[in-house]
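The following record pairs a protein chain with its ligand, zinc ion.
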Amino acid sequence: MTKLIKLAAAVSVITYAQPTMAAAQNLNVVASFSIIADFAKNVGGDRVEITTLVGPDGDTHVYEPRPADAAAVGAADVVLVNGLQFEGFLQRLVEASGTDAPVVELTKGGEVLPNAEEHHHDEGEEHAHEEGEDHAHEDEHGHHHHGEFDPHAWQSVHNAEVYVQNIVDAFCAADADGCDTYKTNAEAYGEQLEALDGEIKAAIAEIPENKRTIITSHDAFGYFEHEYGLTFLAPEGVSTESEASAADVAALIEQVQEDQASAIFVENISNPRLIEQIASETGIEIGGTLYSDALSDASGPASTYIDMMKYNVDMIKNAVLGS
Ligand SMILES: [Zn+2]
């Protein structure tokens, strides 16, 4: 009986929670993960209702969709995703949802970096990822194969601007009446992103060249490295899907000792255990948490993309220079 009452309550919430005319006209947007949801909110403002599949502190690489996700995608007007094989769950989810909505890859047209990890593999071993073969694509070293490209493109602010422009195009195509609003919102947000880019560059410039090697748990900061001139080392590759081997960790520790890394960080989406081990073996104190592939929740220090980038830079600067 209790269950029935709860169900009825849930149904009435779904039906009546948005009774105004404006809500009925809102564009129904699904964002694959929290950072994209923040971009979408900045472009869409009050005209969009956003459902986020992988929420704050979530790990998109290994996310397992729930039935509610298929329902959300099925009801969407627009689905916004990163692409570059970041969302391994995406294809099956889209198929299961039966959605007619456009699925828009926001990295399209951005500056995309190759997956450096792939260079360690023999090219002859590469093969297409087939459905239902999740564990079949490991090579003899136990490594999984990932995309040809590094998916973490949002870690460069210039690429974030590309995501935003792609969102404007997608929203304008789905809701022509709101196009002027989307463009105006995106312009204002773009100015904030430009300012952010300048702030990051100024902060990094204060870090001496010989103190720019940073350790994190997976290779999520390749774009940050490329754009802003730090060096990031990690025991895990561009996906968190496969665990680092003992040999990977030993090689990293050796490299850390040679390169004299200046700081080591845990990530908000990852178990800290491996980083704690490396920290203790190299004698480098953990500098805190970096937000790599997800925002914090609203009460945390990185609940928007801009706050996340500022927070990460502050943490790195403070760890290296002392605060
Ligand atoms: Zn990642």
